[in-house]
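Input record (Table S2, row 186):
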Amino acid sequence: MAVREILLMGDARLLRCAQPVTAFDTDELHLLVTDMLDTMLAANGAGLAAPQIGVDLQLVIFGTGAPNPRYPEAPPVPKTVLLNPVITPLAPDHGPATPVEVEDWEGCLSVPGLRAVVPRFQRVRYTGFDQYGDPIDRTVDGFHARVVQHECDHLIGKLYPMRVRDFSRFGFTSVLFPGLDIPSRK
Ligand code: NI
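Output record (nickel (II) ion complex):
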């Protein structure tokens, strides 16, 4: 187990479309997942995608289970290891018959010190596999849906600033949220 270096925005490796995982339940894959969990925990991240540590695979992890100091207001999201994900936007439980977008603040460990308001689908279904090859199929909304969309964006070379529409709501965390007790790097 090891904490790996997180690549920062500007690194071309963050712009690739990641390759699907073809071998599940291997020692190599389990070691990679362990390293990613250690790296996410050390950075207090809500999620981490393999490309962020320079690994060109469709693999994301997310979730905390407990309140996260980077997102103290966010509801807990189950700790999840998700490979080869597919996301389908869904209409809200109540309301319009088509998917709707909602706006909220996001940060990213590859874009330290900054936050922006980013539009995401309010409700999505996501499918894929865990590291053992067992299928995952969930329908989620709110912060859980936001985190999944953010992390899976890393697998198609998208960082959240590329999704920002209103740059008047993009700035430094220390200025926007001075009460947020997190190290300035994150
Ligand atoms: Ni990110």
